[in-house]
Structures are given as structure tokens and as C-alpha cells.
Design goal:
The chain is α/β, with parallel strands linked by helices. The chain contains 12 helices and 9 strands. β7, α11 and β8 form a beta-alpha-beta unit. The longest helix has 19 residues.
């Protein structure tokens, strides 16, 4: 069994020393990482952008709103176009995403995310190392799943935002499937329907699985960042299983909420509970300082 050398003085020092000592890092990113950069689905950000919808429906947050069964397609796209503009087209770069990318640049890594925002694109990641498991807000799919292609039209989304009135978009802006003429919808995984999985999705999946197979042994970190328990089957549970299968691995969870860790991997697990953005930015600074000194 390999010995890990890491510092436990603070969460940022622990993270920096673990990554420096790792042979590879598998990163699982959930909503908590984007939230730490200020891209929250609750509070002022939600209230400022959807006051009319909140008044009409009494929603508590954007997640609840995004899953709502709208009475008309015009209203569906009035909400979704604003949502896509806010959380994808116009969402600025996140500090924690940039710092994480810099921190991993000297270590083999791969990212799987249940987020569907633009964060990895905006931070200029190598997108051959990122797997969007739950879809992307900017993509559209056939609502009847008649074929496995996805579509993107930012110009149309922005027109929907600009031209909507009374929480409805003009009917002539509603997108339709080019194959069967059914209405298009956002390419986001749904608990009941799933989602259209395009050839690009399977290319991402194949690269991710190849990385996992290549790094089944050795000092591998399964780094879970801001992952809750809404869909544990995509990141949390597989990371537990991979850690259990490799006694040299570490399961590292970054979350201010405390979740149960299975007994069989407790000795291999580390929980970092400080603010996610602060911890990652400080850890990146520590690694940069160490590299500067060594040079």
C-alpha cells in the first residue's frame, strides 16, 4: 500500500498537498462549486431575474422552477430562455473553476459533472477532459426523442428573452424538431424521461471510462466538489466504489454539508468543509508558491 504525504493544517493545505502527491485525479463537480462562485439558484439572483414567475407560481428556487410543467410552450420558453441566458450564455467565469484548472495542469485528471452550466467552457478547460453527464442548458433536443442529435441556437434564445411579453415568447420563435416536427426542449436529464444522449455525449463518456480504466490503481484522488444527494448515483456512489476497489486511493469530499461516508472507505476518506471557492483558490496559490520556490 502506498503512503500519502499531505498536510492537515488547513483545508487548502490538505488539498494542495494531496494533489501534489497524486498520480491522477478524478474530479466530480456538483452544484455546490458553482454556488461557491456566486452562481446560486436561490436568493437575490433568482428573485432579480424571475420576479414575475415567482409572483405567479410561488417558487422557492430556480431548480424547482426549471422542472416545472408549464401550461404552454410559449411560457416554457419564456422561462427557459431567461434561464439559459443567465446560467449559460451570460454566466461569467468562476474563480474556483480557473483555480482548479491551474491546480491540475501538472497532474493527469478528468472531470465528470452533473452541472449543466458553462463553467468549464468559460474557464477554458480542455473539453476532452470534461464529461457533462446531465446535459447542457444551451442545447436542445426533440421532446419526443425521435433521434439522438442535439441543437444549439444562442441567437434564438436571446430573441426569446428580448421579445417575450407577459411571460410568453412569440409563437414563431418556438423551436421544432427538424425530423418529426415535435417541439424542442432543453437537453437536460429528467428523472422520468432521461435525456437525448447524442454522439458527442457518448464520446465524452468513452473518454471518461478510458481514464478510469487507465487509473484503477495507484495514488488516485476521487475529488468530489459540491456534490449533494439529489443524484448520488452519478458521482458520489461510483466514487465510493472506485475508492473501495483501490486501497491506495483517497476519496476527498468538499462540502459544507456533512454526508455519511461508508465504513469500508472511512480510513481512505477526507472531508474538507471550508468554503469551496476559498479552499481551491488558496490551494492553487500554495502550489504556485511551491513551484516558484522549486524553480
Amino acid at each position: 500500500m502506498s503512503t500519502w504525504n499531505y498536510n492537515t493544517n488547513s483545508d487548502s493545505e490538505t488539498l494542495a498537498s494531496l494533489i501534489k502527491d497524486a498520480d491522477a485525479v478524478v474530479v466530480g463537480v456538483g452544484a455546490g462549486m458553482s454556488a461557491s462562485d456566486g452562481f446560486t439558484y436561490v436568493g437575490d439572483r433568482f428573485k432579480k431575474n424571475f420576479p414575475d414567475f415567482i409572483e405567479k407560481y410561488g417558487w422557492f428556487d430556480m431548480l424547482q422552477a426549471s422542472l416545472f410543467d408549464f401550461p404552454t410552450t410559449e411560457e416554457y420558453w419564456a422561462f427557459q430562455s431567461r434561464f439559459v441566458k443567465l446560467n449559460y450564455i451570460d454566466q461569467p467565469v468562476g474563480k474556483s473553476y480557473v483555480a482548479l484548472k491551474e491546480m491540475l495542469e501538472h497532474t493527469p485528471y478528468f472531470v465528470i459533472t452533473t452541472n449543466a452550466d458553462n463553467a468549464f467552457y468559460k474557464a477554458d478547460y480542455d473539453m476532452d477532459k470534461v464529461f457533462y453527464y446531465q446535459g447542457e442548458y444551451a442545447l436542445m433536443q426533440c421532446s419526443q426523442f425521435c433521434h439522438n442529435e442535439t441543437y444549439r441556437d444562442d441567437e434564438m434564445m436571446l430573441k426569446m428573452v428580448e421579445q417575450q411579453q407577459d411571460m410568453k415568447v412569440p409563437y414563431d420563435l418556438i423551436p421544432f424538431c427538424p425530423k418529426c416536427n415535435a417541439k424542442l426542449e432543453i437537453n437536460k436529464r429528467n428523472a422520468e424521461k432521461g435525456m437525448v444522449e447524442s454522439p458527442h455525449f457518448f464520446e465524452q463518456k468513452a473518454r471518461y471510462e478510458a481514464f478510469l480504466n487507465e487509473h484503477k490503481s495507484g495514488k488516485v484522488i476521487y475529488l468530489e466538489i459540491g456534490v449533494g444527494y439529489t443524484t448520488p448515483q452519478f458521482i458520489k456512489h461510483p466514487f465510493w466504489r472506485f475508492t473501495c476497489q483501490n486501497k491506495d486511493a483517497k476519496f476527498v469530499t468538499m462540502n459544507q454539508k456533512s454526508y455519511r461516508i461508508p465504513d469500508d472507505i472511512k480510513e481512505q476518506s477526507i472531508a474538507l468543509t471550508d468554503d469551496i471557492q476559498t479552499t481551491i483558490v488558496k490551494a492553487n496559490h500554495i502550489l504556485k508558491e511551491q513551484q516558484h520556490v522549486s524553480n
